[in-house]
Design a protein that fits this description.
The chain has about 280 residues and is mainly alpha-helical. The chain folds into 2 domains: about 100 residues, no CATH class; about 130 residues, no CATH class. Helix content is about 55%, strand content about 5%. It has 11 helices and 3 strands. Strands 2-1-3 form a 3-stranded antiparallel beta sheet. Helix 5 crosses helix 10, helix 7 runs parallel beside helix 9 and helix 8 packs parallel to helix 10. The longest helix has about 60 residues. The N terminus is likely disordered.
């Protein structure tokens, strides 16, 4: 089922955990060149003030903000005449990317708040497709030697044909050298391990699968956020259309009350019927 705005219970501030000091409720950091951001510059003064108020509220709560318009209006002490603008303004700040709808009360993990390369997979349940090899087999042979030497130096172990074969298999399957090196480097080695090369070789396929799963989860999370933003944009568009229709109806009522329709029916003045005046304004 495609997520809609009603599926989300909380709002998170973009990059909050990345730039704000944790467990601090008395002050927050701000950026003096915010107006240089095109998306921020497109916000109205009311929307900017609402976003800044939400940042302060986020700091006071110490967790994502409940996605409840009435609660937000009360928490930010919005005056009565402006409360009707809060929901639409939140939708706009979501569409600009400053607010992120979520269903969790704790802070986002790094993978959800930082900008990373997103990999979209055709199937949500099946295994991730293998990428197309970017290098020729002979180039992969050379690259496998370099990666093995680098891994052996990093883990202080000796080279082995089995380790090289595992690296070469991953490269021929289309794995990037960065992924292979990350898996080799991050392999946990016990202090009493006497066959480090074997541990590296055995762990490599499983570590690559974990990378696939992590990217798949990131892609699904990003797709969920994109669907939520689209739903909020559509909701905001409908609100604007309803507001415009209400304004037109109100203008029509005002015109009827003032009798504009009767005034429009008054014939134009016939200047030939007006007596001529001399230069001092005396009738001849």
């Amino acid at each position: 089922m495609q997520p809609t705005a009603s599926n989300f219970t909380h709002l998170e501030i973009k990059n909050w955990d990345k730039y704000q000091k944790p467990n601090t409720t008395s002050w927050i950091k701000d950026y003096t060149n915010r107006e240089d951001d095109p998306d921020f510059a497109r916000l109205t003064f009311f929307q900017r003030g609402l976003l800044e108020g939400l940042c302060r509220l986020r700091a006071r709560l110490g967790k994502p903000i409940p996605y409840d318009i009435d609660y937000i209006s009360r928490a930010l002490c919005a005056v009565a005449v402006e409360r009707r603008l809060v929901g639409r303004s939140i939708a706009v700040t979501i569409s600009r990317g400053f607010l992120i709808p979520c269903n969790q009360q704790d802070s986002f993990p790094d993978s959800a708040r930082e900008e990373k390369t997103i990999y979209i997979y055709e199937s949500e349940s099946g295994p991730a497709p293998k990428p197309t090899p970017a290098l020729t087999p002979s180039q992969n042979e050379t690259l496998a030697d370099k990666l093995q030497a680098k891994a052996c130096e990093f883990h202080n172990t000796t080279a082995n044909s089995k380790l090289r074969a595992s690296i070469l298999t991953a490269l021929n399957d289309g794995r990037t050298s960065n992924d292979v090196w990350t898996c080799l480097k991050d392999t946990k080695i016990e202090s009493n391990d006497r066959l480090i090369w074997k541990t590296l070789s055995d762990n490599l396929p499983f570590a690559l699968i974990q990378i696939d799963e992590r990217r798949k989860q990131e892609a699904q999370t990003q797709a969920m956020y994109a669907a939520a933003l689209a739903a909020e944009q559509e909701k905001g568009r409908l609100v604007l259309e309803q507001a415009a229709a209400a304004e037109r109806a109100e203008n029509e009522l005002i015109e009827d009350d003032l009798g504009f329709s009767e005034l429009d029916s008054i014939p134009e003045l016939d200047l030939a019927m007006v007596p001529e005046l001399d230069t001092v304004g005396v009738q001849q």
